[in-house]
Amino acid sequence: MDSVLNWLNDNSGLILHYGIQAVVALVIFLLGSRIAKFCSNLTEKGFAKKKVDKAVGSFVSSIVYTLVFAVTILMALSQIGIETTSFIAILGAAGLAVGLALQGSLSNFASGVLIILLRPFKSGDFVEAGNKMGTVKKIEIFSTELRTPDNKVIIVPNSQIMSGAITNFSRESTRRIDLVIGVSYDADLRQAKEVLKSVLDAETRILKDPAYTVAVSELGDSSVNFVVRPWVNAADYWPTYWSLMENIKIALDDANIAIPFPQMDVHLHKQD
């Protein structure tokens, strides 16, 4: 015990020196973390004021946060006496090894940059990307966040998005509803066509230009199939789709026009 006390007395100045450096390094780290967060938020707000797409703002702000945070760590290490030049060299060599091990993450980052540059979608667009569907909430360094219509959050790696087809349902202001309506071979086709047109004419959300299409597309195995293709504003797509499906069924029933459905006839033969 005496030897420990003697060592502490002999090295009190050194302990105090390194203690102060450690405290200063901790303060630098804590302040730097707050500054990184502040710079990130400031960048995002600045993009928002300039009316730049929210997804772009979130992507750039995450990069700003990462850079400021990295500088903070280097400053904190320098404060406690670690030679940052040597550390950076070691970090570079380690980074190469880690980079080879984390090729997927680097691919996600590169894909994130491509998403920002090519702009296949923006925040608020409803898309199908990476085999997932949802509304784009934000684009981050390694992933993109989608929110489904039933309010689930899907985090999709950026590389998965850029490696496949992207369908943007929101880019164009109008969309076409494609319906296939089958009627019985016994039905009067002229009457059936007029009934379908009357339903479309009664739907106020259907656009006049481009004009809708109602035409016989196929003589099927058990039905004559009409294609019904009206145009609507993109925001009205699903409400109009559901309304048309219901109203077409009601109108055809009122006109006594049958809609065929699969059925099986069973014949029983009595053996004498």
Automatic annotation (TrEMBL):
Transmembrane segments: 15-36, 56-82, 88-118
Membrane topology: Multi-pass membrane protein
Gene Ontology MF term list: mechanosensitive monoatomic ion channel activity
Boundaries of every Mechanosensitive ion channel transmembrane helices 2/3 domain copy: 63-103
One GO cellular component, as annotated: plasma membrane
Top-level taxonomic group: Bacteria
Residue span, Mechanosensitive ion channel MscS C-terminal domain: 177-259
Keywords: Cell inner membrane, Cell membrane, Ion channel, Ion transport, Membrane, Transmembrane, Transmembrane helix, Transport
Pfam families (alphabetical): MS_channel_1st, MS_channel_1st_1, MS_channel_2nd, MS_channel_3rd
Record's subcellular location: Cell inner membrane; Cell membrane
UniProt domain Mechanosensitive ion channel MscS: residue ranges: 105-171
Subunit relationships: Homoheptamer.
Role description: Mechanosensitive channel that participates in the regulation of osmotic pressure changes within the cell, opening in response to stretch forces in the membrane lipid bilayer, without the need for other proteins. Contributes to normal resistance to hypoosmotic shock. Forms an ion channel of 1.0 nanosiemens conductance with a slight preference for anions.
UniProt record similarity statement: Belongs to the MscS (TC 1.A.23) family.
Protein name: Small-conductance mechanosensitive channel
The species this protein was found in: Pseudoalteromonas arctica
